[in-house]
């Protein structure tokens, strides 16, 4: 059984931020993989604007992006679609930015970067 390892890069150091990612994810070819990424920010609960989640293959090739209004109770419309290769696995309003990769293939073996943006902050997990 072939396996695919996915490395998520992480670097930054702002005292007010907390961002957590999986250091490496390994699954068998054909299985689904979840690349964990989450964040907290001191103004996260009071922020009422849009949160944008971006995933890129290192160094900077964005292949997935979705946005949701933080105060909205509606399900994010552009973040999760059954049957698509990539979907958000979680809710950015709760600091959950994880990516679901369906039916992983050897071509998915790469370094991935999770990014969160809003008007108050932009942060990469490189």
UniProtKB/TrEMBL annotation:
Domain Ig-like residues, every copy: 2-126
InterPro entries: Ig-like_dom, Ig-like_dom_sf, Ig-like_fold, Ig_sub, Ig_V-set, SIG15
PROSITE patterns per record: IG_LIKE
A GO-annotated cellular component: plasma membrane
Record SMART domains: IG (SM00409)
Span of the signal peptide: 1-22
KW 4Fe-4S (keyword) present: no
Gene Ontology BP, a term: regulation of actin cytoskeleton organization
Pfam family, one: V-set
Keywords: Signal
Entry keyword annotation includes Signal: yes
Highest taxon of source: Eukaryota
Annotated PANTHER family: SIALIC ACID-BINDING IG-LIKE LECTIN 15
The protein's name in its UniProt record: Ig-like domain-containing protein
Species in which this protein is naturally found: Lates calcarifer
């Amino acid at each position: 059984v072939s396996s695919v390892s996915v490395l998520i890069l992480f670097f930054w150091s702002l005292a007010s931020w907390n961002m957590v990612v999986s250091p490496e994810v390994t699954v068998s070819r054909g299985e689904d993989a979840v690349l964990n990424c989450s964040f907290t920010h001191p103004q996260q609960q009071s922020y009422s604007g849009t949160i944008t989640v971006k995933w890129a293959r290192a160094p900077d090739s964005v292949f997935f992006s979705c946005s949701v209004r933080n105060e909205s109770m509606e399900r994010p419309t552009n973040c999760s679609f059954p049957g698509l290769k990539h979907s958000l696995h979680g809710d950015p309003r709760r600091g959950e930015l994880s990516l679901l990769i369906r039916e992983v293939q050897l071509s998915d073996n790469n370094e991935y970067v999770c990014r969160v943006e809003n008007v108050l902050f932009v942060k990469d997990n490189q």
